[in-house]
Design a protein that fits this description.
Elements lengths: L1 H22 L4 E12 L9 E11 L4 E10 L2 E3 L2 E3 L2 E13 L3 E13 L9 E14 L4 E15 L4 E15 L13
Antiparallel strand pairs: 1-2, 1-10, 2-3, 3-6, 4-5, 6-7, 7-8, 8-9, 9-10
C-alpha cells in the first residue's frame, strides 16, 4: 500500500508539471484512469479479475508516444487462502493516429506482474505485452479509451514455462493540450 501511495504522489507531481512542459513543445501529456478485466492463463488456475488503474502518457507527436501504467487487481481466494491483490506495471511505446473524434493505436513494451503473497502465487515475473485500442473524443481535452493487450510471461515461475494473460480496459483520459485542429485547405 505504501508503494501505491508513492506511485500516486509521483504521478500527481508529474501531472502538475505536465501542462507547462507540454506548452513548451509540440508534445502533450495524457492522464487517465480506467477499469480492467483480466483473464489469466488457464494453467495458473486463477479466477478472472476485475480491477482498476491509472496511466500517464507523453505523446511526442500525433503518431508516437511513451506510456507508463499501473493496475491493481483486488484480493481473491486461492484454494481457501486469502491472497493480496495482484499488481501490474508496464511501460509502452504507442504508435497510431487519428482525429479529435476518433483515433486508433497499437502499443507494446515491458510488463512486471506481482502475483501476490499466498503460496504458490508468491512471486513476481517480468515479460512483455502487445495490444491495440482506440479513443473516442469527448471534446478538446477528454476522451473515452478502450484497449486490450496480451501479457506474455516467458518464464512463469509456477509453470516452468510461458504464460499468457489477457487484459482489457475501459477508461477516461485527460490531455494537457487540446487536440490539434487542422486548418481547412486554402483555395486560390
Amino acid at each position: 500500500m505504501k508503494r501505491l501511495s508513492h506511485l500516486l504522489t509521483g504521478a500527481l507531481a508529474v501531472a502538475g508539471a505536465a501542462g507547462p512542459l507540454a506548452a513548451q513543445s509540440g508534445s502533450r501529456f495524457e492522464l487517465g484512469g480506467f477499469g480492467t478485466y483480466t483473464r489469466y492463463d488457464d494453467a495458473l488456475l486463477l479466477d478472472d479479475r476485475i480491477g482498476g488503474g491509472g496511466r500517464l502518457a507523453w505523446h511526442l507527436n500525433r503518431f508516437l508516444g511513451l506510456e507508463i501504467e499501473g493496475v491493481y487487481l483486488g484480493p481473491s481466494t486461492v484454494a481457501g487462502n486469502a491472497s493480496n491483490g495482484l499488481h501490474v506495471g508496464s511501460a509502452s511505446l504507442m504508435l497510431g493516429g487519428g482525429t479529435r473524434a476518433f483515433s486508433l493505436y497499437a502499443l507494446g513494451g515491458f510488463t512486471r506482474l506481482d502475483m501476490g503473497t499466498t503460496a504458490p502465487y508468491n512471486y513476481a515475473e517480468n515479460g512483455f505485452h502487445g495490444g491495440a485500442g482506440f479513443r473516442i473524443g469527448l471534446g478538446d481535452r477528454l476522451a473515452l479509451r478502450f484497449d486490450g493487450r496480451a501479457l506474455i510471461m516467458p518464464d512463469d515461475d509456477l509453470l516452468g514455462g510461458s504464460a499468457t494473460h489477457l487484459l482489457g480496459s475501459v477508461g477516461i483520459s485527460y490531455f494537457t493540450k487540446p487536440w490539434e485542429r487542422r486548418a481547412p485547405p486554402v483555395e486560390e
